[in-house]
Write a structure and sequence with these properties.
Elements lengths: L10 H12 L5 E7 L2 E12 L4 E8 L9 H16 L4 E4 L6 H9 L12
Parallel strand pairs: 3-4
Antiparallel strand pairs: 1-2, 2-3
């Protein structure tokens, strides 16, 4: 599946992005691939192994990749990784308030609304 407007993710941009994210020891970052094309990324950030907590974030690059189940599947997989592999006991999620699609996906996979924060 290709979008009409491709997201330009050159090897140089990918390497720079990877180095920035990989060097953060409080974050685990994964690229989301579809047919060997990067369509987004998902990560656990603010990982605190002593408290057993982290925050889930996801970005799907273009709208043509949304509402197809990719985000739901990826988030479920990363949650499983966080709980089973990292031993986390709680994973939070952050979402932009106007992003009702993401809120719906988070509720569908078991998240509960806690509070709104104007910081972003």
């Amino acid at each position: 599946m290709m979008c009409e407007t491709p997201y330009i993710y050159t090897p140089e941009i990918a390497q720079k992005d990877f180095e920035r994210k990989a060097n953060n020891c409080n974050r685990v970052w994964f690229a989301i691939l579809l047919d060997d094309i990067v369509i987004g990324d998902v990560y656990l950030k603010n990982i605190d192994l002593q408290k057993g907590s982290s925050t889930l974030s996801i970005v799907l690059i273009q709208d043509c990749y949304k509402e197809k189940g990719y985000g739901t599947a990826v988030e479920r997989t990363v949650l499983e990784y966080g709980f089973k592999e990292l031993g986390l006991s709680v994973i939070y999620a952050d979402v932009v308030l106007r992003n009702t699609r993401s809120q719906h996906v988070l509720e569908k996979i078991g998240f509960e609304y806690l509070h709104e924060d104007s910081f972003f």
